[in-house]
């Protein structure tokens, strides 16, 4: 059994197949699971991504590099990569996790991907692990926009308006529906200088504001 056997292959064959099986085994299945490998893989991944960003973007500051790295190694990004590789089909899960859809749960997919990287590191060293990371992130590292990537919509919108010396956006709650433990907020974002109004929704005021800001940012750019 080797990683190359996974759909999309990672271009690495294990000398110790047991490491691969452990990397794919969730704790719900038994004691010989991937939690320790995930811990190791997390550090290896961060180092490999930091090294790539350092080489690719010599003009960026430490803070900007840290922001890009945080975006690339966050759970959502890892889960997207894992889904693209159809990693869920190869997970070893307990019956409860299988029934509850664990094979497509973002946290499990992300953790397993990190565990795989940790397993490659143990099996073949950092150079091999770095090669696997490069394969996993092909397309991600080449098409980054350092100016916007990793910034939340409210920050992007504020910076956009400030760069054009326009007034800051205004956020107002339009409605709140649902029971107390599961409320849905609707928030408007107003940009008077551009005559822009957008509506966003979310299960918290903050998430609704972010959604409204995202739409307003798109509308504001349409004015250019």
Core attributes:
224 residues, Ribonuclease iii, N-terminal Endonuclease Domain, Chain A, flat, 9 helices
Structure explained in plain terms:
- This protein has helices at residues 17-23, 35-56, 62-73, 75-84, 95-99, 106-124, 126-136, 153-163, 205-222; strands at 170-177, 184-191, 196-202.
- By secondary structure, it is mostly helical.
- It folds into two domains: 3-136, Orthogonal Bundle (Ribonuclease iii, N-terminal Endonuclease Domain, Chain A), CATH 1.10.1520.10; 153-222, Double Stranded RNA Binding Domain.
- Strand 2 and strand 3 form a beta hairpin.
- The longest helix is centred in the first third of the chain and has 22 residues, at 35-56.
- The radius of gyration is 21 Å and the shape is flat.
- It starts with 16 loop residues before the first helix and ends with a helix.
- 31% of the residues are buried.
In short:
By secondary structure, the protein is mainly alpha-helical.
Q: Could you describe the largest sheet, including whether it forms a barrel?
A: 3 strands, antiparallel
Tell me which CATH architecture of the largest domain applies here. Answer: Orthogonal Bundle
- Based on CA atoms alone, the radius of gyration comes out at 21 Å
From the spread of the alpha carbons, the general shape counts as: flat
Quickly give the structural class. Answer: mainly alpha
The neighbouring-strand order within the major sheet is 1-2-3
CATH fold type of the largest domain: Ribonuclease iii, N-terminal Endonuclease Domain, Chain A
β-sheet strand percentage: 5-15%
So how many helices? Answer: 9
């Amino acid at each position: 059994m080797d990683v190359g056997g996974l759909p999309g292959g990672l271009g690495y064959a294990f000398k110790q197949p047991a490491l691969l099986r452990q990397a794919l085994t969730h704790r719900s299945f038994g004691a010989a699971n991937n939690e320790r490998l995930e811990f190791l893989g997390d550090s290896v991944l961060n180092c490999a991504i930091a090294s790539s960003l350092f080489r690719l973007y010599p003009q960026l500051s430490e803070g900007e590099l840290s922001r890009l790295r945080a975006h690339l190694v966050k759970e959502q990004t890892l889960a997207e990569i894992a889904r693209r590789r159809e990693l869920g089909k190869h997970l070893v899960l307990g019956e409860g996790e299988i029934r509850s859809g664990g094979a497509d749960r973002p946290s499990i997919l992300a953790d397993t991907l990190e565990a795989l990287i940790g397993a490659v590191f143990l099996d073949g060293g950092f150079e091999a692990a770095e090669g696997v990371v490069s394969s996993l992130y092909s397309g991600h590292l080449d098409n980054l926009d350092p100016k916007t990537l990793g910034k939340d919509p409210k920050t992007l919108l504020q910076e956009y308006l400030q760069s054009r010396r326009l007034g800051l956006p205004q956020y107002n709650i339009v409605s709140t529906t649902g029971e107390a433990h599961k409320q849905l907020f609707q928030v408007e974002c107003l940009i008077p200088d551009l005559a822009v109004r957008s509506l966003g929704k979310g299960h918290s005021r903050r998430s609704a504001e972010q959604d409204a800001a995202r739409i307003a940012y798109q509308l504001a750019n349409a004015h250019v």
